[in-house]
Amino acid sequence: MSQPTARKHTALPKARILIEALPWLTRHHGKTVVIKFGGNAMVDEELKAAFAQDVVFLRHAGLRPVVVHGGGPQISAQLDRHGLVSEFKAGLRVTTDEAMDVVRMVLAGQVQRELVGLLNRHGPLAVGMTGEDAHLMSATKHFAEIDGERVDIGRVGQITEIDTGAVQALLDDGRIPVVSSIARSADDGHVYNVNADTAAAALAAALGAETLMVLTDVEGLYADWPNSDEVISRLTASELEKLLPDLASGMVPKMEGCLYAVRNGVTTARVIDGRVQHSILLEIFTDEGIGTMVLPDPDNDSNKNEGADR
Ligand SMILES: Nc1ncnc2c1ncn2[C@@H]1O[C@H](COP(=O)(O)OP(=O)(O)O)[C@@H](O)[C@H]1O
Ligand SMILES: CC(=O)N[C@@H](CCC(=O)OP(=O)(O)O)C(=O)O
């Protein structure tokens, strides 16, 4: 006779955990969240599977998650197999026409397919697309700026327009769009390689997303990288803007993207450690968060549309 009572008690902590999440879930019900999964965080099979579980959890909890994925290391490995060297300028890959074919093949044919497969283990949810599909992302050629000089870095694109129609239709249908950061050229028949952080931020702003979450291979934005591992836990758009000139490598497009997002209607942009299992749920369900949170300036009306160059 005592068994049912004992079972009830064992389940009580689980019930409490679910109820603790209730205020967050109520606040975010129906909201769009754009999650950028960086190539450097996609290193381990268990981590990738846990990432997919978190995204599916958000979807079943009533949010509208959109995944934008990277794949920098995977592209570099494939270029290497083709005997092509990888060179980055201002955090962006110098992309020859030959390299562009490899970029497209790896992002759309390999990395995106793998994520779609992992998400669809949980049901008919994920649909992969690139920025080429249904005019999702149009771009023109982007020139890097190095020491005040305009530098040609090949087929790297700067997003000029986003048509969110197809993504919204998928979200309305209960699907999880998984987007590769390749854009169609607005002026010739080519395609462009767009940094995935930049693409995620632009898409988050265009969708009017509540949150942009960027998963990477560090704990967050370090105050004095590489000399110290002190993570900046939260900062405003203006504070971030002051730090931008001192940032290096992959953090440049990431933080420019966060700045653009919060200055164009996204409520928070977060950089979190994708090497930690279930980092998305940890970020959501811990009050202080686990990474770096960028917030709009208290009165951000004057900042509208002054974000990063794109
Ligand atoms: N201030 C900083 N804080 C954290 N990481 C930084 C900083 N400046 C440069 N980095 C570098 O940026 C990298 C993250 O960018 P990137 O390699 O492009 O990751 P992803 O593949 O996730 O987009 C980190 O691994 C680190 O080496
Ligand atoms: C122009 C440019 O640099 N494009 C990136 C696109 C992939 C990407 O951004 O991947 P991560 O998020 O893993 O860095 C590249 O070719 O590596």
UniProtKB/TrEMBL annotation:
It is found in: Cytoplasm. Keywords: Amino-acid biosynthesis, Arginine biosynthesis, ATP-binding, Cytoplasm, Kinase, Nucleotide-binding, Transferase. It comes from the Bacteria. InterPro entries: AceGlu_kinase-like_sf, AcgluKinase_fam, ArgB, Asp/Glu/Uridylate_kinase, Glu/AcGlu_kinase, NAGK-C. It is an enzyme of class 2 (transferase). Pathway: Amino-acid biosynthesis; L-arginine biosynthesis; N(2)-acetyl-L-ornithine from L-glutamate: step 2/4. It catalyses: N-acetyl-L-glutamate + ATP = N-acetyl-L-glutamyl 5-phosphate + ADP. Substrate binds at residues 71-72, 93, 193. One of its GO terms (molecular function) is acetylglutamate kinase activity. This is Acetylglutamate kinase. The gene is argB.
